[in-house]
Amino acid sequence: MNDQDKTKEQLVEELAKLREQIVDQQRINDNLPVLLAAAGFDGYYKQVNAAFERILGWTKEESLSRPFVEFIHPDDHAVAVKEFERLKAGGAAINFMDRNICKDGSHRWLNWIVIPVPNRDIVFGIGNDITERRLAEESLRQSEERYRQLADTTPDVIYILDETGKLLYANRVAGMYFNTSPESLVGKTQRDLFPPGMAASHMERIRSVFETGKMEEREVLYRFGDREVWLNVRTIPLRDKDGRVASLMGICRDVTEQNRAAQALQQAHDELEEKVKERTDALREANQRLQQSCDELETIYEAMVDGLLVTDVETQRFVRANGASCRMLGYSEKELQSLSVSDLHPSEVLPEIVANICLVTGTNDQTQPGSIPFIRKDGSRFYAEIVGKYLIFDGKPCSMAIFRDITERLQTQEALERERQSLWGMLQASDHERQIISYDIHDGLAQYLAAAGMEFQVYDSMRENSPGEAQKVYETAVELVRRAHAESRRLISEVRHPIIDERGLETAIMSLVYEQRQRGGPRIDCHTSVDFNRLSPILENALYRIVQEALTNACKHSRSDKVAVTMIQEKQDIRLEVQDWGMGFDNEAIGKGHFGLESIRQRTRLLGGRLTIESKPGSGTRVQAVVPILENQMEDH
After folding, report:
1. CB–CB of 320/310 below 8 Å?
2. 8 Å CB contact between 555 and 563
3. What angle do CA 63, 45, 66 make, to 5 degrees?
4. Mean pLDDT of all residues in the chain?
5. pLDDT at site 637
């Protein structure tokens, strides 16, 4: 039935129902917790719901009587007008935040979703009151600012770092230690701030706390330039909302003076003990002083950083242990008193330990310092420097051992020795290269020049009497000079190929492959993909020599039908790879004298890279070096 067929009563009834639906919809809109508004392109609200009055205080009549921009905070006018003009120009729906002025003069933050209504020159807006959230965010920002102020006023060093050892935050005191601003420390790694050995030690502790998730506290000797400082370092794991360790906070306190004071107190105590022994005949008069000294001794004893164990010489059992001993060994003092020497040391060193304990009861009352392994309660080992001294304790002959954990020091010494061996190997490889060059000069260039000189002498003696023969001799001499020139160019390219300076590393490696192909041997495939233009000369030469050594080894020794050479830039790394499918070798069985591989290994190490050599007899060989590119190593040409 169309509208023309309907009676007047039916039309009136439908109109009444439609009005009821509109009233119901208006009632629903007025009860919504969000602001609903329709605005015309003339800048006035055409319709608003009751939330305008509940939230902002403006009645419906007041909201419709003025341009809607007058209800927006002046600081937000420009953004609101710009977005509205974009909608008038046919733009899509938008989402933005602004401050709306309340009737009482205050303002509230609203998050608006504004949707244009096609072909009606109006927009429909939904506003959500986010004032409380914005206030909470501002409160959080102010709280963080107060935390930073507190961290900058403390006398301790405070920093936050991630799992890679990179600083995420550093306070003012941290900047003072490094003689720079705390902002300039953010983003730096342990390798940037400390020498290699110290940086490696710090990274080991960082990984330990990330793995265990437990707070760690220790005293560490730091070097800042030519200044050494003992710091008490407390490393605290910081967890994310899922409970995982996301970063670490470090709190460092300078305890250099305390350590010096402790050493001075120890020295003073030793001197006092000697005086007490010398004045045993005046025991009654010195009893009060002795009691006071004993109290001081007990305090120092428990506060010592070094471990102290008193052992009964006869039973080999421990009769006294200080707190430092308990912390280092993992036992309580009561547990230690139930153990003997054999429970704390490996069996292979027990005879030496027992001999030292007996030694202090003889003519020598003190043993010389020595490095001895200990076994903790959890079964782990550490090395300590021990000094043994004889004493009478509870009327029994005893040995007092003072020991200090030197595990890190020994590890550092081992690392230094490995570094010395690496440098020695580099020197050997360099000397070997010089020998090869001298042999090449002697067997090639020098021989050509000597032969040419002799031919020129023959030419001088024959040119008047036998000009025809002299001319042949002259041509032979010239040919020898040409060969000498070619040999000299070859030797120069062996040391540093001229094409590196002229065209760069990528072209030089392609030229190297071409020259090797010309000499015959296996088929060589070469693939390069890099973004850089030029690198520093030292880096270019080192990378070229790595490829040269690996390619020479593959062509000379692998007996492979083909060899693949690859140079790929992967972000800030260069990956160099030379692979063959030849006879291979046992990587573990390589001894000294393999200067080619040693040269590759040392060059990669000095460039801060990673070297992987994969080879098995009969399965070919892959030599891969991944070397980082620093910003200051790139050059523009």
Report:
1. yes
2. yes
3. 50
4. 79
5. 43
Report the alpha-carbon distance of residue 442 to residue 445 in Å, rounded.
6
**What are 249's strand-pairing partners?**
160, 236
Q: Is the pLDDT of residue 343 over 80?
A: yes
Kindly give the interhelix angle for 537-557 and 505-518, rounded to the nearest 10 degrees. 20
Angstrom distances, CA of residue 351 to CA of 58, 312, 355: 95, 16, 6
Name the phi and psi angles at 626, rounded to 5.
-110, 115
The residues near 184 (Cβ < 8 Å, ≥ 6 apart) are 175
Structure tokens at 3: 């509208």
Rg (CA), the chain: 42
Measured distance CA(40)–CA(45) in Å, rounded: 6
User: Residue 582 in contact with residue 562, Cβ under 8 Å?
Assistant: no
- Flag whether pLDDT at 3 surpasses 60: no
425 and 432 Cβ atoms separated by less than 8 Å: no
**573-580 vs 381-393, strand pairing mode:** unpaired
CB atoms under 10 Å from CB of 253, counted, come to 16
Q: Which residues pair with 112 in a beta bridge?
A: 96, 127
Amino acid at 140: L
Give the residues across from 525 on adjacent strands: 564
What are 453-473's pLDDT values in tens digits? Answer: 787 787 788 878 888 787 877
Residue with tokens 């008038």: 88
Q: Are 473 and 459 within 8 A, CB to CB? A: yes
For residues 105-133, average pLDDT? 83
β-strands 396-405, 381-393 pairing: antiparallel
Whether 433 and 599 have beta carbons less than 8 Å apart is answered as yes
Q: Which comes out higher in pLDDT, residue 599 or 164?
A: 164
CA distance 611 to 550: 12
Condensed to tens digits (0 to 9), the pLDDT of residues 370-408 reads: 678 888 889 888 888 888 788 888 888 888 888 888 888
Assess whether pLDDT exceeds 80 at residue 189. Answer: yes
d(CA 629, CA 610): 13
Residue among 592, 612, 594, 525 at smallest CA distance from 557: 594
CATH architecture of 304-405: 2-Layer Sandwich (3.30)
The domain segmentation of the chain, as residue ranges, is 1-27, 32-133, 154-254, 304-405, 413-495, 497-637
Tokens 């020695």 correspond to what residue? Answer: 424
Q: In the numeric block, which tokens belong to residue 223?
A: 């070097």
Would you say the C-alpha torsion 63, 69, 70, 71 has a positive or negative sign?
positive
Nearest residue to 217 via CA among 203, 197, 198, 237: 237
Paired tokens of 523: 């088929």
CATH fold group of domain 154-254: Beta-Lactamase (3.30.450)
Confidence (pTM): 0.34
According to DSSP, the β-strands at 107-117 and 216-224 are: unpaired
Lowest mean pLDDT among 262-266, 408-412, 414-418: 414-418
Element (DSSP H or E) covering residue 568: strand 562-570
Report domain 32-133's class: alpha beta
For residues 407 and 382, is the Cβ–Cβ distance under 8 A? yes
From the list 107, 115, 103, 96, the residue with the least C-alpha distance to 73 is 107
Residue pair 528/577 in contact (Cβ under 8 Å)? The answer is: no
CATH class of 497-637: alpha beta
| pLDDT value at 285 more than 50 | yes
The answer to whether domain 304-405 and domain 497-637 are alike in fold is: no
